[in-house]
Amino acid sequence: MATNRRVSRVAELIKREVSQMLLNGIKDDRVGTGMVSVTDVDVSGDLQHAKIYVSIYGTDEAKAETMAGLKSATGFVRSELGARVRLRRTPEVIFVEDRSIERGNKVLALLNQLNNQRSPENSTPVEDSTDPDDDEFSE
Hints:
The relative contact order is 0.14. The protein is flat. Helix 1 packs across helix 3 (74-84). It has helices spanning 4-24, 60-72, 74-84, 100-117, and strands spanning 35-43, 49-57, 92-97. It is of the alpha+beta class and 139 residues long. The protein contains 4 helices and 3 strands. A 3-stranded mixed β-sheet has the order 1-2-3.
């Protein structure tokens, strides 16, 4: 079992290498349909499995095509990782779509919408409760 420090170092190394592969290593046209970025890599404690979280910007069809392209390129990505990263055993690679950025944007849009709908007369101003004449410590 690897230490937490080693697991995080291997995860960062895998993240960097897979990002480079997405830029110029994977030749599948389906991967280029949406803008893809690696958001996180989760490596198991024994360094045998790696979940690669990818964020895809584009339409739902482009996202589905990109995920299909990434799943078909899993063997290539694993073999390239084996050549680029010096580990005793190359981890199994699983691509997972990360929708956290979309959820964050949706929450921000809802908060902005609520803020714009709120009228000024409904908001109560914060009153200052400090009265200079009402000091309980004054003699």
